[in-house]
Amino acid sequence: MIDLLRIDSLAYGGNGVGRHEGKAVFVPHSAPGDLLRCRVTREKKRYAEAELTELVEPSNQRRQPLCPVFGRCGGCQWQHLPYREQAHWKERIFRDTLVRQCALPAEKILPMAAAPDEWGYRSRVQFKCQQTDNGFVMGFYRRGSHYVIDVEHCPIAAGAINGALARFRAWLPASPCSERIPRVDMAVDDEGRVRVVLHVLDDPADALADYLRPLAAEADYALFLQSGRENTLLHVLGDDDLHIRPLADTELRLAYGPGGFAQVNLEQNRRLVAEVLGAIEGGRPRRILDLCCGMGNFSLPLARIADAVVGVEDHVPSIDKARNNAAANALANVRFHARSAEGAYAALAGSGGFDLVVLDPPRTGAHQVARELAALRPARIIYISCDPPTLARDLVPLLQAGFQVQWSRPVDLFPQTYHTESVTSLVLTP
Questions:
Q1: What is each CA distance from 205 to 200, 221, 360, 372, 419, in whole angstroms?
Q2: How far is CA 15 from CA 12, 275, 302, in A?
Q3: How confident is the model at residue 282 (pLDDT cuts 50, 70, 90)?
Q4: Which among 373, 384, 388 is positioned nearest to 420, based on CA atoms?
Q5: According to the model, what pLDDT value does residue 204 have?
Q6: For the stretch 295-313, what's the b/e string if a residue is b when 16 or more beta carbons lie within 10 angstroms of its beta carbon?
Q7: Hey, is 155 helix, strand or coil?
Q8: Backbone angles phi, psi at 360, to 5 degrees
Q9: Which are the catalytic amino acids?
Q10: How far is CA 169 from CA 156, 164, 382, 420, in A?
Q11: pLDDT digits (tens, 9 = 90+) for 238-276
């Protein structure tokens, strides 16, 4: 037990940080300025992890969380902080990470692109389900466990998703196999259409589909059942595709299917795309390689201003959607390949090479790809990251090979959490 601890800062991961007897102590759901008592749950040589037991003197940076299950649900970490403080600490943590790990000058880090809406922004949500002795519950896992906390309304979810949540909370307890439903995926697109994928532990039963079909039809939802991998997906009702608009001022419209990926914050995704396009203003790229391209979120906006774009993605259904999206938007100067990003530059460059590489990897980053690009030396790289530590790790071999960071901008796609997206522009120095 630590009798009194003053929280001085926030760390990547969301925890508050104080110092006790020369050791850093990480405390979830604390705020800079808090004076608190805490119980150590894990102790290492240089740091300790603890849980807050008493808030002796609350920080003046605190606010009342909007969600009644905040602190128990594992989804949000920072609802107790005003949004301006969240954005401040995200920018500071992002800057400190790149300055410390990559020796970047602090002025290379541009200000945080804050979200226009801190609530109701999530366009995709996975709800966990559990049949308990007290009835059917639907919500999110408690932090660090597989215990489902019942949630009636999620304040960061889009209004249409909360509407669907209320309906399925009413429908599923009376369904033919409520005890066999572990998860429900819900998504809404830029046109307000809702798609629901219901996961079941056995092959989808006709009885479950028959029960839900008229209910979903009345609510105008697209509905699917899935009993395992994507090849078990069963269409019940409605269109397969949802659509996003990655540019604010054009008619460009991109489809993605069940199991496909689109950013959860559609408005901030447009900001991401705008940052990428803005990075190449003043010089029309000849050939662009878009690695981890998904269904064309960056490839197709880039194809409108480039001579040619080559997209690479190892998820075959996403590549199929990317090809369909190119055709639907009459973009004939883009080609897509279903393959790993590793080795793609060397395999696809041909005699002309690429003068720009766009890289948008998953949270684990793309260290091997970064090492390949360091050796192959394209003129420019734009790296879109959703994890500052792996971004910093991947930048190191590029900087060592002669690339220079022009700028890096954090973009907040995930208010109420510690997560930070970013766009980093690199050029090869002579």
A1: 9, 19, 38, 48, 38
A2: 7, 29, 38
A3: confident
A4: 388
A5: 67
A6: bbbbbbbbbeebebbbbbb
A7: coil
A8: -130, 70
A9: 386
A10: 18, 8, 43, 31
A11: 999 999 999 998 899 999 999 899 999 999 999 999 999
Question: Does the structural domain 124-188+194-238 have CATH classification 2.60.40.10?
Answer: no
Q: What sections of 118-265 are H helices per DSSP?
A: 159-171, 206-219
Third-level CATH fold of 2-62: OB fold (Dihydrolipoamide Acetyltransferase, E2P) (2.40.50)
Q: What is the pLDDT of residues 284-339, one digit of tens each?
A: 789 999 999 999 999 999 999 999 999 999 999 999 999 999 999 999 999 999 99
pLDDT digits (tens, 9 = 90+) for 341-359: 999 999 999 878 999 999 9
Report the mean per-residue pLDDT for the chain: 95
Q: Which H or E run includes 376?
A: helix 367-376
What DSSP designation does 231 have?
G
The reported pTM is: 0.95
What residues does each domain of the chain span?
A: 2-62, 87-117+264-428, 124-188+194-238
Strand partners, 287: 308
Rounded to whole angstroms, the Cα distance separating 216 from 168 reads 9
What confidence tens digit (pLDDT) does each residue in 39-72 have? 999 999 899 999 999 999 999 999 999 999 999 9
Same topology for domains 87-117+264-428 and 124-188+194-238, yes or no?
Answer: no
Fold (CATH) for 87-117+264-428? Rossmann fold (3.40.50)
| Cα–Cα distance, 7 to 11 (Å, whole number) | 11
CA distance 127 to 138: 6
